[in-house]
Amino acid sequence: MADSTIIQRCEAKGLRMTDQRRIVARVIGAADDHPDVEELYARASAVDPKISLATVYRTVKLFEEAGILERLEFGDGRARYEDAERDHHDHLIDVTTGQVIEFIDQEIEDLQEKIAARLGYKLIGHRLELLAVPVAKPSKT
Amino acid sequence: MADSTIIQRCEAKGLRMTDQRRIVARVIGAADDHPDVEELYARASAVDPKISLATVYRTVKLFEEAGILERLEFGDGRARYEDAERDHHDHLIDVTTGQVIEFIDQEIEDLQEKIAARLGYKLIGHRLELLAVPVAKPSKT
DNA sequence: ATAGTTGCAAACACTTTGCCGTTGT
DNA sequence: ACAACGGCAAAGTGTTTGCAACTAT
Question: N or C: more exposed end of chain B, with fewer CB within 10 A?
Fold first, then answer.
Protein backbone atom coordinates (compact mmCIF):
# COMPACT_ATOMS: atom_id res chain seq x y z
CA MET A 1 0.00 0.00 0.00
CA ALA A 2 2.74 2.33 -0.98
CA ASP A 3 1.33 4.87 -3.35
CA SER A 4 -2.36 4.71 -2.55
CA THR A 5 -4.70 7.59 -1.82
CA ILE A 6 -6.02 8.28 1.63
CA ILE A 7 -9.44 7.08 0.53
CA GLN A 8 -8.02 3.81 -0.72
CA ARG A 9 -6.24 3.22 2.53
CA CYS A 10 -9.42 3.95 4.45
CA GLU A 11 -11.26 1.38 2.41
CA ALA A 12 -8.45 -1.11 2.85
CA LYS A 13 -8.84 -0.72 6.61
CA GLY A 14 -12.57 -1.27 6.35
CA LEU A 15 -13.58 2.22 7.46
CA ARG A 16 -17.10 3.11 6.50
CA MET A 17 -16.74 5.79 3.87
CA THR A 18 -19.22 8.61 3.96
CA ASP A 19 -19.29 11.65 1.71
CA GLN A 20 -17.88 13.76 4.53
CA ARG A 21 -14.96 11.45 5.15
CA ARG A 22 -14.14 11.36 1.48
CA ILE A 23 -14.13 15.13 1.36
CA VAL A 24 -11.83 15.41 4.35
CA ALA A 25 -9.58 12.72 2.86
CA ARG A 26 -9.35 14.59 -0.43
CA VAL A 27 -8.74 17.93 1.17
CA ILE A 28 -5.83 16.54 3.16
CA GLY A 29 -4.50 14.58 0.22
CA ALA A 30 -4.52 17.74 -1.87
CA ALA A 31 -2.88 19.95 0.74
CA ASP A 32 0.78 20.71 0.36
CA ASP A 33 0.91 22.74 3.53
CA HIS A 34 0.04 21.92 7.14
CA PRO A 35 -3.54 23.03 7.71
CA ASP A 36 -5.04 23.01 11.18
CA VAL A 37 -8.52 21.63 11.74
CA GLU A 38 -10.24 24.96 11.30
CA GLU A 39 -8.53 25.33 7.95
CA LEU A 40 -9.46 21.80 6.88
CA TYR A 41 -13.00 22.66 7.84
CA ALA A 42 -12.89 25.78 5.68
CA ARG A 43 -11.58 23.82 2.70
CA ALA A 44 -14.09 21.03 3.23
CA SER A 45 -16.88 23.56 3.54
CA ALA A 46 -16.02 24.86 0.12
CA VAL A 47 -16.95 21.42 -1.22
CA ASP A 48 -19.87 20.71 1.08
CA PRO A 49 -21.13 23.80 2.87
CA LYS A 50 -23.03 21.78 5.39
CA ILE A 51 -20.26 19.61 6.73
CA SER A 52 -19.72 20.34 10.40
CA LEU A 53 -16.59 21.17 12.31
CA ALA A 54 -17.33 18.29 14.68
CA THR A 55 -17.25 15.88 11.77
CA VAL A 56 -13.91 17.18 10.62
CA TYR A 57 -12.54 16.70 14.13
CA ARG A 58 -14.02 13.21 14.36
CA THR A 59 -12.69 12.28 10.96
CA VAL A 60 -9.12 13.38 11.44
CA LYS A 61 -9.04 11.66 14.79
CA LEU A 62 -10.40 8.47 13.26
CA PHE A 63 -7.87 8.61 10.45
CA GLU A 64 -5.09 9.29 12.86
CA GLU A 65 -6.04 6.31 15.01
CA ALA A 66 -6.12 4.18 11.90
CA GLY A 67 -2.58 5.24 11.15
CA ILE A 68 -3.62 7.03 7.98
CA LEU A 69 -2.83 10.55 9.13
CA GLU A 70 -0.17 11.94 11.37
CA ARG A 71 -0.96 14.63 13.88
CA LEU A 72 1.55 17.44 14.13
CA GLU A 73 1.87 20.12 16.76
CA PHE A 74 3.92 23.17 16.06
CA GLY A 75 3.49 24.69 19.47
CA ASP A 76 0.65 27.07 18.68
CA GLY A 77 -1.99 25.01 20.40
CA ARG A 78 -3.65 23.79 17.23
CA ALA A 79 -3.30 20.28 15.85
CA ARG A 80 -2.28 19.88 12.24
CA TYR A 81 -2.52 16.80 10.10
CA GLU A 82 -0.67 15.32 7.20
CA ASP A 83 -0.80 12.12 5.23
CA ALA A 84 1.14 9.52 7.24
CA GLU A 85 1.98 7.64 4.08
CA ARG A 86 4.08 10.37 2.59
CA ASP A 87 7.78 9.88 2.84
CA HIS A 88 8.96 10.63 6.31
CA HIS A 89 10.31 14.10 6.82
CA ASP A 90 10.90 16.65 9.53
CA HIS A 91 10.01 20.33 9.67
CA LEU A 92 11.93 23.55 9.74
CA ILE A 93 9.85 26.50 10.85
CA ASP A 94 10.78 29.95 9.69
CA VAL A 95 10.02 31.90 12.84
CA THR A 96 9.88 35.18 10.97
CA THR A 97 7.04 34.08 8.73
CA GLY A 98 5.66 30.90 10.24
CA GLN A 99 6.42 29.15 6.98
CA VAL A 100 7.06 25.43 7.34
CA ILE A 101 9.70 23.74 5.25
CA GLU A 102 9.95 19.98 5.05
CA PHE A 103 13.25 18.18 4.89
CA ILE A 104 14.76 14.75 5.29
CA ASP A 105 18.21 13.86 6.41
CA GLN A 106 19.09 10.23 6.72
CA GLU A 107 22.05 11.02 8.88
CA ILE A 108 19.87 12.54 11.54
CA GLU A 109 17.43 9.65 11.36
CA ASP A 110 20.21 7.15 11.94
CA LEU A 111 21.66 9.20 14.73
CA GLN A 112 18.36 9.20 16.55
CA GLU A 113 18.17 5.43 16.50
CA LYS A 114 21.69 5.26 17.79
CA ILE A 115 20.90 7.61 20.65
CA ALA A 116 17.80 5.67 21.64
CA ALA A 117 19.77 2.42 21.54
CA ARG A 118 22.48 3.93 23.70
CA LEU A 119 19.81 4.75 26.30
CA GLY A 120 18.42 1.23 26.15
CA TYR A 121 15.44 1.98 23.94
CA LYS A 122 14.11 1.09 20.56
CA LEU A 123 13.02 4.15 18.59
CA ILE A 124 9.45 4.02 17.39
CA GLY A 125 9.02 7.61 16.31
CA HIS A 126 10.17 11.14 16.85
CA ARG A 127 9.27 14.76 16.50
CA LEU A 128 11.85 17.17 15.22
CA GLU A 129 11.27 20.79 14.44
CA LEU A 130 14.01 23.24 13.71
CA LEU A 131 13.23 26.86 14.47
CA ALA A 132 15.23 29.17 12.29
CA VAL A 133 15.55 32.53 10.61
CA PRO A 134 16.48 33.15 6.98
CA VAL A 135 20.15 33.84 6.51
CA ALA A 136 19.96 35.84 3.32
CA LYS A 137 18.67 39.42 3.07
CA PRO A 138 19.25 41.39 6.34
CA SER A 139 21.75 44.29 6.28
CA LYS A 140 25.13 43.83 7.89
CA THR A 141 25.94 42.24 11.31
CA MET B 1 24.89 34.54 34.57
CA ALA B 2 25.80 30.96 34.15
CA ASP B 3 25.03 29.18 37.37
CA SER B 4 22.47 31.49 38.92
CA THR B 5 19.12 30.57 40.37
CA ILE B 6 15.87 31.42 38.66
CA ILE B 7 15.20 34.05 41.30
CA GLN B 8 18.56 35.67 40.72
CA ARG B 9 17.95 35.83 37.02
CA CYS B 10 14.53 37.36 37.60
CA GLU B 11 16.08 40.05 39.72
CA ALA B 12 18.81 40.62 37.17
CA LYS B 13 16.11 41.28 34.60
CA GLY B 14 14.39 43.71 36.90
CA LEU B 15 11.23 41.67 37.40
CA ARG B 16 9.29 42.65 40.46
CA MET B 17 9.65 39.76 42.83
CA THR B 18 6.64 38.86 44.88
CA ASP B 19 6.29 35.97 47.29
CA GLN B 20 4.26 34.06 44.73
CA ARG B 21 6.83 34.47 42.00
CA ARG B 22 9.58 33.35 44.31
CA ILE B 23 7.61 30.25 45.20
CA VAL B 24 6.99 29.36 41.59
CA ALA B 25 10.65 30.01 40.81
CA ARG B 26 11.79 27.71 43.60
CA VAL B 27 9.36 24.98 42.72
CA ILE B 28 10.60 24.91 39.15
CA GLY B 29 14.21 25.18 40.18
CA ALA B 30 13.78 22.22 42.50
CA ALA B 31 11.95 20.03 39.99
CA ASP B 32 13.90 17.34 38.25
CA ASP B 33 10.94 16.22 36.18
CA HIS B 34 8.69 18.10 33.75
CA PRO B 35 5.66 19.28 35.69
CA ASP B 36 2.69 20.80 33.92
CA VAL B 37 1.08 23.95 35.26
CA GLU B 38 -1.47 22.11 37.35
CA GLU B 39 1.36 20.21 38.99
CA LEU B 40 3.37 23.37 39.60
CA TYR B 41 0.26 24.81 41.17
CA ALA B 42 -0.05 21.77 43.45
CA ARG B 43 3.57 22.06 44.53
CA ALA B 44 3.30 25.81 45.02
CA SER B 45 0.11 25.35 47.01
CA ALA B 46 1.99 23.14 49.43
CA VAL B 47 4.12 26.17 50.25
CA ASP B 48 1.41 28.81 50.08
CA PRO B 49 -2.09 27.34 50.12
CA LYS B 50 -3.64 30.53 48.85
CA ILE B 51 -1.64 31.02 45.70
CA SER B 52 -3.95 30.87 42.71
CA LEU B 53 -3.73 28.86 39.53
CA ALA B 54 -4.03 32.08 37.54
CA THR B 55 -0.93 33.41 39.22
CA VAL B 56 1.02 30.30 38.37
CA TYR B 57 -0.04 30.67 34.74
CA ARG B 58 0.84 34.36 34.72
CA THR B 59 4.18 33.70 36.33
CA VAL B 60 5.37 30.93 34.05
CA LYS B 61 4.31 32.98 31.07
CA LEU B 62 6.18 35.99 32.37
CA PHE B 63 9.28 33.93 33.06
CA GLU B 64 9.08 32.34 29.67
CA GLU B 65 8.84 35.69 27.95
CA ALA B 66 11.84 36.86 29.95
CA GLY B 67 13.76 33.88 28.62
CA ILE B 68 14.11 32.39 32.07
CA LEU B 69 11.97 29.33 31.47
CA GLU B 70 11.43 27.16 28.45
CA ARG B 71 7.98 25.92 27.58
CA LEU B 72 7.78 22.31 26.49
CA GLU B 73 4.93 20.47 24.85
CA PHE B 74 4.90 16.74 24.81
CA GLY B 75 1.76 16.42 22.75
CA ASP B 76 -0.71 15.89 25.57
CA GLY B 77 -2.19 19.35 25.40
CA ARG B 78 -0.57 20.63 28.56
CA ALA B 79 2.38 23.01 28.66
CA ARG B 80 5.36 22.06 30.76
CA TYR B 81 8.18 24.28 31.88
CA GLU B 82 11.81 23.89 32.69
CA ASP B 83 14.66 26.16 33.61
CA ALA B 84 15.99 27.60 30.35
CA GLU B 85 19.42 28.04 31.88
CA ARG B 86 20.06 24.37 32.42
CA ASP B 87 22.38 22.76 29.96
CA HIS B 88 20.57 22.21 26.73
CA HIS B 89 19.17 18.75 26.25
CA ASP B 90 16.53 16.88 24.32
CA HIS B 91 13.93 14.41 25.51
CA LEU B 92 13.29 10.75 24.97
CA ILE B 93 9.80 9.70 25.95
CA ASP B 94 9.20 6.11 27.00
CA VAL B 95 5.81 5.57 25.42
CA THR B 96 5.07 2.59 27.64
CA THR B 97 5.34 4.59 30.85
CA GLY B 98 5.32 8.24 29.84
CA GLN B 99 8.67 8.63 31.57
CA VAL B 100 10.83 11.39 30.12
CA ILE B 101 14.56 10.91 29.82
CA GLU B 102 16.84 13.80 29.05
CA PHE B 103 19.87 13.44 26.84
CA ILE B 104 22.37 15.49 24.95
CA ASP B 105 24.23 14.59 21.83
CA GLN B 106 26.53 17.14 20.33
CA GLU B 107 26.57 15.33 17.03
CA ILE B 108 22.84 15.81 16.58
CA GLU B 109 23.09 19.45 17.60
CA ASP B 110 25.74 20.11 14.98
CA LEU B 111 23.83 18.21 12.37
CA GLN B 112 20.78 20.37 12.93
CA GLU B 113 22.75 23.53 12.33
CA LYS B 114 24.15 22.03 9.20
CA ILE B 115 20.71 21.13 7.92
CA ALA B 116 19.33 24.59 8.62
CA ALA B 117 22.30 26.17 6.89
CA ARG B 118 21.80 23.91 3.88
CA LEU B 119 18.22 25.22 3.62
CA GLY B 120 19.40 28.82 3.87
CA TYR B 121 18.55 29.36 7.51
CA LYS B 122 20.27 30.10 10.75
CA LEU B 123 19.14 27.78 13.53
CA ILE B 124 17.81 29.56 16.59
CA GLY B 125 16.25 26.63 18.37
CA HIS B 126 14.71 23.24 17.96
CA ARG B 127 12.40 20.71 19.49
CA LEU B 128 13.42 17.08 19.45
CA GLU B 129 11.58 14.30 21.15
CA LEU B 130 12.32 10.68 20.59
CA LEU B 131 9.45 8.29 21.19
CA ALA B 132 10.70 4.87 22.16
CA VAL B 133 10.10 1.62 23.98
CA PRO B 134 12.50 -0.12 26.37
CA VAL B 135 14.57 -2.75 24.67
CA ALA B 136 15.36 -4.91 27.68
CA LYS B 137 12.93 -7.36 29.28
CA PRO B 138 10.34 -8.69 26.75
CA SER B 139 10.39 -12.43 26.00
CA LYS B 140 11.54 -13.63 22.59
CA THR B 141 9.89 -11.66 19.72
C1' DA C 1 -32.18 -3.75 9.01
C1' DT C 2 -29.15 -1.76 11.83
C1' DA C 3 -24.82 -0.34 13.59
C1' DG C 4 -22.31 3.46 12.59
C1' DT C 5 -22.31 8.49 11.23
C1' DT C 6 -23.69 13.37 11.15
C1' DG C 7 -25.04 18.07 12.73
C1' DC C 8 -26.04 20.76 16.36
C1' DA C 9 -25.30 22.64 20.62
C1' DA C 10 -23.71 21.82 25.05
C1' DA C 11 -19.70 20.25 27.60
C1' DC C 12 -14.67 19.96 28.26
C1' DA C 13 -9.74 20.93 29.42
C1' DC C 14 -6.38 24.19 29.42
C1' DT C 15 -5.27 28.96 29.53
C1' DT C 16 -6.20 33.96 29.67
C1' DT C 17 -8.39 38.12 31.45
C1' DG C 18 -11.32 41.96 33.93
C1' DC C 19 -11.99 43.72 38.18
C1' DC C 20 -10.51 45.41 42.53
C1' DG C 21 -8.22 44.99 46.74
C1' DT C 22 -3.08 44.27 47.87
C1' DT C 23 2.01 44.81 47.57
C1' DG C 24 6.91 45.78 46.00
C1' DT C 25 10.02 49.35 45.19
C1' DA D 1 2.59 56.75 46.54
C1' DC D 2 1.51 54.23 42.79
C1' DA D 3 2.32 51.22 39.12
C1' DA D 4 2.37 46.53 39.22
C1' DC D 5 0.54 42.23 41.13
C1' DG D 6 -2.61 38.46 43.02
C1' DG D 7 -7.10 36.24 43.76
C1' DC D 8 -11.40 35.24 42.06
C1' DA D 9 -14.60 34.07 38.80
C1' DA D 10 -15.88 34.81 34.16
C1' DA D 11 -14.43 34.44 29.39
C1' DG D 12 -11.58 32.29 25.66
C1' DT D 13 -9.47 28.74 22.89
C1' DG D 14 -9.27 24.31 20.71
C1' DT D 15 -11.46 19.87 21.01
C1' DT D 16 -14.88 16.33 22.45
C1' DT D 17 -19.48 14.44 23.21
C1' DG D 18 -24.82 13.39 23.90
C1' DC D 19 -28.56 13.07 21.22
C1' DA D 20 -31.97 12.36 17.50
C1' DA D 21 -32.10 12.05 12.65
C1' DC D 22 -29.76 9.90 8.81
C1' DT D 23 -26.86 6.52 5.83
C1' DA D 24 -23.52 2.85 4.33
C1' DT D 25 -23.22 -1.77 4.13
Answer: C
Task: Give the residues of chain B that fall short of pLDDT 70.
Answer: 1-3, 136-141
CB neighbour burial string for A87-116, b if at least 16 within 10 angstroms, e if fewer: eeebbbbbeeeeeebeeebeebeeebeebb
Q: Quick one: which residue's CA is nearest to D9's C1'?
A: B54
Predicted confidence (pLDDT) per residue in A1-45, tens digit:
456 899 999 999 999 999 999 999 999 999 989 999 999 999 999
CA of B79 to C1' of D2 (A): 34
Known binding site for Fe cation: residues of B? 88, 90, 109, 126
Report pLDDT digits (tens) over B123-138.
Answer: 999 999 999 999 865 5
At the second CATH level, the architecture of A90-132 is 2-Layer Sandwich (3.30)
Q: How many angstroms separate the CA of residue A36 from the nearest CA in chain B?
A: 15
